[in-house]
Amino acid sequence: MAAASGDGEVEIHVVEVAESPSSSDESSPLLAVDDADNKPPRMTIFSVSYPRREPLKEPSSSVTDPEIAFLNQIVSWIWSGSRHSGLLCMASSSVIYYIMDVLLGIFPVGSAPIYQTVFTRCTILLIMSFMWLKRTGLPLLLPTHARNVLVLRSLTGFVSLLSFIYSVQNLPVSYAVLLNFATPIMASIGAMIILQEKLPRSHIGGLTCSFIGLLLILQPILLSEGSLTETFQMDNVVTDGRKDVILAIFVGIFSTILGGVSYCLIRAGAVAADQPVYTVFSFAILACPLSAICILIFQEFVLPNLFTFLLMMVLGVLAFYAEILLARGLQLGRIAKVTNIQYIKVLLWQLWSMTYLGAGPSSNKIIGCLLILASVCGTAYFGPDKENE
């Protein structure tokens, strides 16, 4: 306009050029949008400042999240993340059963009949296994290729449970416990016959060592005069005469044999279905109505108090996780190897009785505990089986 004039107009022209960027920025904001790609600092200056404030609003998550992640890593490592997962699952199951025994020792469920307790526990097993299947997206129907094995496992398991209850009611507790802990031996023999599993000498030696340790621990009770002549009673059931005692012993042996067969079927069903929860689910489906029938036939329904009911619920939840871990352990390892870990329950109970119950240590108990400890450590030392059957 006035470019042909003197220097003053040139200065005015320079001032107009200097003001034009600011005015253009104010009057035409679309230019900033067009040049946004060419000027990234304008977007990053303010965007960087906000994330710096967000972590300050959640200080607790930075503390709890690593702990939860650590627990999840431990659980996944025990379940399937280690070469020793089969042994670890069986050991975890035995520890949970030991905790259940401790709770029963501290808070005995005296007001609830035995079959009512079984019904409550089986109901909790059914509900929790159903929730497990729904949460993992697995079908609720049993797999067709494993259905017969799972049904047979449920039948043998429930009959073994009823036989064990009868032996406990009619025998001293020490005799019933001794027969019950012979189940791993029967399961190993059954696995050799039913599942065609080999039984190495190391497995035979481990089971023999653990059972001898159990005999040494129970020897003072088994050979005591009082245990042989005591009145065999529980839940107001009294048995007199030698024939009843012999019958109870044979029923206990029958329970042990069926328990061993049930272990073999648990392994076969878990391997066939590829999910150990189906073994628990199928057992609960069958055991719930049958235990309810047993309540109607053998006992009267007793309404438990609130504390007894809560204790039964806690024991049912613990029993579910113990059964799941037991089935997982049998799925991953040979029966003769993983079932030997169950004797750790005897070792833990002896430590509890000598530490908190005031039971005096004896040479037999110490030697028996050392034998069980050596057997369990030897089982873990030789490592897991490398065969996937």
Question: Can you describe this structure?
Answer:
- This protein is mainly α and 389 residues long.
- It has one domain (86-381).
- 74% of the residues lie in helices and 2% in strands.
- It contains 17 helices and two strands.
- It has helices spanning 7-27, 30-34, 41-49, 61-80, 85-106, 114-136, 147-170, 173-180, 183-194, 201-222, 225-229, 242-273, 277-298, 306-332, 335-338, 344-355, 363-381, and strands at 232-234, 237-239.
- It has a two-stranded antiparallel sheet.
- Strand 1 and strand 2 (237-239) form a beta hairpin.
- Helix 10 packs antiparallel against helix 17 (363-381) and helix 16 packs antiparallel against helix 17 (363-381).
- It is globular, with a radius of gyration of 34 Å.
- The protein starts with 6 loop residues before the first helix and ends in an 8-residue tail after the last helix.
- Residues 1-39 are annotated as: Disordered.
- This is EamA domain-containing protein.
- It is found in: Membrane.
Low-pLDDT windows of residues: 8-37, 43-63, 225-239, 385-389
The share of residues in helices is over 70%
Number of helices: 17
Strand order of the largest sheet: 1-2
**Span of the ends, CA to CA:** 96 Å
Percent strand equals under 5%
Radius of gyration: 34 Å
General form = globular
The overall pLDDT average reads 79
Q: Work out the count of structural domains.
A: 1
Coarse structural class? mainly alpha
Largest pleated sheet:
2 strands, antiparallel
Number of strands: 2
Order of helices and strands: HHHHHHHHHHHEEHHHHHH
GO cellular component, one term: membrane
Protein name: EamA domain-containing protein
Subcellular location: Membrane
Pfam families: EamA (PF00892)
